[in-house]
Amino acid sequence: MVIAKGYSQVNKQQKHRICTFTRKHIQMQN
């Protein structure tokens, strides 16, 4: 249970990083 919670938190952080990275990339293209 605790391991699953930690894994989900890491997944959220990775998704957030990807979102911010794509946003920066789009801004640079524009």
Radius of gyration: 13 Å
Largest sheet: none
The structural class is mainly alpha
For the secondary structure, the number of strands is 0
Give the DSSP E fraction (strand runs of 2 or more residues).
under 5%
User: How many helices?
Assistant: 1
* Separation, N- and C-terminal Cα atoms: 44 Å
Helix fraction, binned, reads over 70%
* Helix-strand topology string: H
What does the overall shape look like? rod-shaped
Compact overview of the structure:
This protein is mainly α. Helix content is 93%, strand content 0%. It has one helix spanning 2-29.
How would you characterize the overall build of this protein?
- With 30 residues, the chain is mostly helical.
- It contains one helix and no strands.
- It has one helix at 2-29.
- The longest helix has 28 residues, at 2-29.
- The protein is rod-shaped and about 40 Å long.
- The relative contact order is 0.12.
List descriptors.
30 residues; mainly alpha; 1 helix
Present the secondary structure layout.
Elements: H1 2-29
